[in-house]
Automatic annotation (TrEMBL):
Catalysed transformations (reactions): Dipeptidase E catalyzes the hydrolysis of dipeptides Asp-|-Xaa. It does not act on peptides with N-terminal Glu, Asn or Gln, nor does it cleave isoaspartyl peptides
Protein name: dipeptidase E
Ligase is among the record's keywords: no
PANTHER family according to UniProt: ALPHA-ASPARTYL DIPEPTIDASE, PROTEASE S51 ALPHA-ASPARTYL DIPEPTIDASE
InterPro entries, A to Z: Class_I_gatase-like, Peptidase_S51
Length: 244
């Protein structure tokens, strides 16, 4: 597994906007470090939060990259989406509905090209749904299945699943329904791969064979048949890259 990860340069963010910040503002420094001197990024707007148009969503993404001096191109503007991925300096996939996003990635035959380019070292940035599809499957998304993708198998840029926007139970809540932890336990009855619960403001940085938790909060990591574990940003979580 490690050999397959040597060139990967990935930033997976729980959310594009945290309370009191602008679009991508809370992860701007991490994006800057990832992109280096690159000045162009290909944006995949297929998740379409709230049903906005691809053009409107691309304009929103540009707001986040303008302070970095980076120009955003929406993949919907390209005559050939596959060739656009093959020529991209970097790729950003934003949030919205994960099922819709994955369906469109399959429909436009972008799964393998994205996998190949990331393997070659092209930087990949995902937020929310864009983080979900970087995992092994989308089986731990919080989204409603508003459409059917070809498969739940995702880009598999990392060998585990992610649950962005992970929420802890409120200690004084009278809500008696299922928690995120309950749902992930249900997932592990039928699936082996680890699940990383990313709280808002948190992100994962994969650089070659090293993975780091960034941001102000710990992450909750779930392994099949074990009690959930809390990991702080300074903790070693490289075992995730050797997962199933």
């Amino acid at each position: 597994m490690k050999k397959a990860l040597l060139k990967k340069d990935i930033l997976l963010v729980s959310t594009s906007t945290t309370h009191g910040t602008g679009y991508l503002e809370h992860c701007r420094n991490e994006i800057k470090e990832l992109l280096g001197d690159r000045k162009h990024i290909l944006f995949i707007p297929y998740a379409r939060p709230g049903g906005i148009s691809h053009t409107e969503y691309t304009a929103k993404a540009q707001e986040g990259f303008t302070p970095l001096g980076v120009q955003v191109q929406g993949i919907h503007e390209a005559e050939n989406p596959v060739e656009a991925v093959r020529q991209a300096e970097a790729v950003f996939i934003g949030g919205g509905n994960t099922f819709l996003l994955l369906r469109q990635l399959y429909a436009n035959k972008l799964i393998e090209p994205l996998q190949q380019r990331v393997q070659q070292g092209m930087p990949y940035i995902g937020t929310s749904a864009g983080t979900n599809v970087a995992g092994k499957t989308i089986g731990t998304t919080n989204d409603m299945p508003i459409v059917f993708p070809k498969s739940f198998d995702a880009l598999q840029l990392v060998p585990f699943n992610i649950n962005p926007h992970y929420l802890d139970p409120l200690p004084d809540s009278t809500h008696m329904g299922e928690t995120r932890e309950t749902r992930i336990a249900e997932f592990h009855v039928h699936n082996r791969q680890p699940v990383v619960g990313l709280r808002e403001g948190s992100m994962l940085r994969i650089n070659g064979e090293k993975i780091s938790l960034l941001g102000p909060l710990p992450a909750r990591i779930f392994l099949q048949g074990q009690k959930p574990m809390e990991f702080k940003p300074e903790d070693d979580i490289n075992f995730l890259l050797e997962a199933y």
